[in-house]
Design a protein that fits this description.
The protein has helices spanning 46-49, 77-90, 103-114, 138-147, 149-161, 167-178, 182-189, 221-228, 246-249, 251-268; strands spanning 3-7, 10-17, 28-32, 54-58, 96-101, 119-125, 208-213, 234-239. The protein is of the alpha/beta class. It has an eight-stranded mixed sheet with strand order 1-2-4-3-5-6-7-8, sandwiched between helices.
């Protein structure tokens, strides 16, 4: 199981999928998962991308097989970005494509603004507005502490995956998210989940694809379009449906659109 020592307190687990021709030197795609997930969340995307690109799927610190974080861990976007940047440095990758979903898209937008020389393209699917402003949520913390992460995932999954997702698939996602350590979730939801990255949008320099659904629970299409238009060189793709985790509910469509987007940019880049 490959790991990267991100810091003295964290081993970052990751998977590399590369089914490109062995005589080629492929471009690399870094994929960032959402809250209470792991790199396994991208399973349906891998067949679409890994034949053409080297795909790197890390588990964010605290999540998946990476080291769980204590309740009082001082979460910051910079710390998470440094973890991912250190991983790509360790893999010898200077420039790469960045793909993210849910709050991974918040991290990815901040990452792209902070490290413009490293990112070739950015694609975010089902990601929240740059400022959510939900504030402290003691009732949610109590739910995690008293009933666990799986209880919360089960209670909220309908809006996440929408009305068309198969029941057995819903159960798979509930169990995936339910494996998250309570200590990680309590700290993460109290800090990163309410980050304000509004000032970062104008500083994103790479071509950017934003994907949402017609009836996303994260907000109306027009709200998404409003912040998407702030990002230079960006475009919005709206797909049918009522999920907000469109990277999961419409994985094949999103993956193919993202692959085509990356290919177009690569062809136009000297």
């Amino acid at each position: 199981m490959p790991t990267h020592r991100a810091s003295p307190d964290c081993e970052l687990h990751y998977v590399v999928d590369d089914y490109t021709d062995p005589w080629r030197k492929p471009e690399t795609v870094l994929m960032l998962h959402g809250n209470a997930e792991s790199g396994a969340a991208w399973f349906a995307w891998v067949p679409h991308l890994a034949r053409h690109y080297r795909v790197v799927r890390p588990d964010m610190r605290g999540f998946g097989a990476s080291t769980p974080m204590p309740r009082d861990f001082p979460w910051t976007l910079d710390r998470i970005c440094d973890d991912y940047l250190g991983l790509m440095d360790a893999l010898g990758v200077k420039r790469f494509h960045l793909v993210a979903a849910k709050i991974g898209g918040t991290i990815a937008r901040y990452f792209a603004a902070r490290n413009p020389a490293r990112i070739v393209t950015l694609a975010v699917a089902g990601t929240p507005a740059p400022r959510r402003g939900v504030g402290p949520r003691p009732e949610l913390i109590a739910e995690f502490e008293n009933k666990g992460v799986e209880h919360w995932a089960r209670r909220t999954m309908a809006g996440r995956l929408g009305s068309r997702f198969p029941p057995e698939g819903v159960e798979w996602w509930i169990r995936l998210m339910g494996r998250t350590a309570v200590s990680t979730q309590v700290g993460f939801i109290s800090t990163i989940a309410d980050s304000d990255i509004t000032d970062s949008l104008r500083r994103i320099r790479c071509p950017t694809l934003v994907i949402t659904t017609e009836k996303s629970g994260l907000g109306p299409v027009e709200e998404t379009r409003a912040w998407q238009r702030i990002i230079p060189r960006s475009r919005l793709l709206v797909v049918p449906g009522d999920s907000y985790h469109v990277a999961a509910s419409d994985a094949d469509r999103c993956a193919e659109e993202t692959r085509a987007f990356i290919a177009r940019v690569s062809l136009s880049t000297p």
